[in-house]
Amino acid sequence: MLVVFGAALLVIDGPAGLSPARLRRTLWLGLLGITANQILFIEGLSRTTASHSAILVALVPVHVLILSALAGLERITARKATGVAIAFAGVVVVASERGLSFSGGTLTGDLLTLCGGLAFAGYTVAGRPVLRELGPMRTTALSFMSGGAAILVIGLPAALRVEWQSVSGTALGGLAYIVLVATIVAYLLYYFAVDRLDPSKVAVFTYLQPLIAAAIAFTVRGEPVTFRLVAGGALILAGVVAAERG
Fold it and tell me: Which of 112, 108, 116, 110 is nearest to 31 (CA)?
């Protein structure tokens, strides 16, 4: 990723594309949105349940709305707040289908996941003024230069311990998909949207993830569509529409 983004910046802007001033301008974006968000989420998920993680990640639009209002980037309207609340309730309904446990054994994982969500909310809001200056492509690429480098340093020891020759082709294909599509392309599209819409309106679309995942699971794996999934999905869609119109 570092090589790809570095080469892209050099092609677009020449040596100025990787100037120290630009790297400093986007340093905190990379550390928040890429390094902290990814590491805290993965570590948190390993210490808590998937349903807890789904609910805690669903708080990101709430964090974005509050931070964006504090930064003076948008107003908290009644319709926005109501939409976010309704969509969050839908996520809780969907996540509770597999049971919710509030035992103290998941507290560490819950806190790590929550902090990861806060880091991504900071990445969303702090990136808005930088996007206006550099544009989505440059801002995303520069963020990955700093954030990706930090992840490389942190994760290199673990990567060296992996017996890569024994990893299946399917697993490698999944890893490639995660890196190229679910990370690089997703981050690029996210900042393209933040550049054009209120940050909270972009963040609220993350509530659609459980529905998309359920649709894929139904299509690919034949998992059943339950009443709770339908009810939660209806709340999510209603909340997203309300927040967008807010």
Answer: 116
